[in-house]
User: Which sequence fits this backbone?
């Protein structure tokens, strides 16, 4: 399952709601900082099952599945 | 593979809410519902004053910024002159209950055919977290620094229960955004509310419990836990007035 999930990192505000709710623990924060000054999320594609929980929890429209 | 999920096009712009704010989730739910019902190009949003005003930056839909607390009255006027449009007012708890309770209640009393979505974050988010009508007993805010004293200031108000028990309205419910399951449930409430407006059944209101991490002095995750562990014991989730199914 390569890249079925699209992550718009420039929108991420590092709230972490997707990270704690992800059932597969497939989301983590990047090392680098996005243009708004947050450490954005990145998805480990090999763990992702495209359940959509991150899309549901995200207040900022980062995810698209 | 699961089903595809994409932010509705009318709300697909970056918005200026604080990290972890519930507003972004709630407006997305409303827009998803409108899209599913095929009404996303037929909607007008009367928007209240408060953090809800930040929608102005994100929405690509007709909207009107109402004076503080009066969105339900403006919505009634919009529906009267333009009944073919779907009218969804979007207000905070301070806007709808503390400041504009007269307009909010009178719209329900007249059973206007509008949908009201109120975002209850138990304080006035935009102006720095002052006490509102839904602030919990003993909650510390910038205007209740020793904790809210309910003997002096009244007890937190439960608006959907109030209108559901007193007035002849179509639909009243309270949802929350603290977990994926509660978000999906809230979406079904909003859908029923907007459907009842489409069927000309009358007034519908959905209150949504939402986190305000910055003014609660919490992290976004702690704020969600506060809703789960503290707020929904008092502000019970569910439907208080069901629609009669029209065959
Ligand atoms: C007539 C008037 N009085 C007061 C204000 C200041 N004011 C702006 S936003 C706000 C509170 C909004 O709180 P709420 O509706 O709970 O929305 P939130 O920001 O929490 O989402 C107040 C009192 C104003 N703009 N206009």
Assistant:
């Amino acid at each position: 399952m390569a890249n079925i999930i699209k992550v718009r990192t420039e929108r991420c505000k590092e709230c972490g709601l997707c990270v704690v709710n992800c059932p597969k623990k497939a989301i983590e924060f990047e090392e680098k900082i996005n243009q708004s000054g947050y450490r954005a999320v990145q998805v480990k594609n090999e763990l992702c099952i495209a359940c959509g929980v991150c899309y549901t929890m995200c207040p900022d429209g980062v995810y698209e599945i | 593979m699961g089903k595809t999920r994409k932010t509705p096009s009318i709300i697909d712009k970056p918005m200026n809410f604080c990290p972890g704010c519930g507003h972004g989730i709630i407006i997305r739910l409303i827009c998803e519902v409108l899209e599913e019902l095929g009404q996303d190009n037929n909607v007008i949003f009367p928007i209240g004053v408060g953090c809800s005003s930040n929608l102005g930056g994100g929405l690509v839909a007709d909207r009107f910024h109402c004076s503080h607390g009066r969105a339900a009255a403006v919505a009634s006027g919009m529906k009267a002159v333009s009944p073919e449009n779907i009218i969804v007012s979007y207000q905070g708890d301070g806007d709808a209950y503390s400041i504009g309770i007269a307009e909010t209640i009178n719209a329900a009393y007249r059973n206007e055919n509008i949908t009201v979505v109120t975002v209850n974050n138990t304080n006035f988010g935009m102006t720095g977290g002052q006490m509102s009508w839904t602030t919990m007993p003993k909650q510390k805010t910038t205007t209740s620094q020793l904790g809210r004293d309910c003997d002096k200031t009244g007890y937190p108000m439960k608006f959907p229960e109030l209108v559901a028990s007193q007035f002849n309205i179509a639909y009243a419910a309270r949802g929350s955004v603290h977990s994926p399951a509660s978000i999906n449930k809230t979406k079904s409430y909003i859908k029923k509310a907007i459907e009842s407006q489409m069927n000309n059944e009358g007034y519908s209101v959905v209150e949504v419990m939402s986190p305000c991490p910055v003014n609660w002095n919490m992290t976004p995750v702690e704020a969600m836990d506060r809703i789960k562990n503290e707020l929904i014991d008092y502000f019970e989730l569910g439907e208080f007035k069901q629609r009669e199914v029209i065959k």
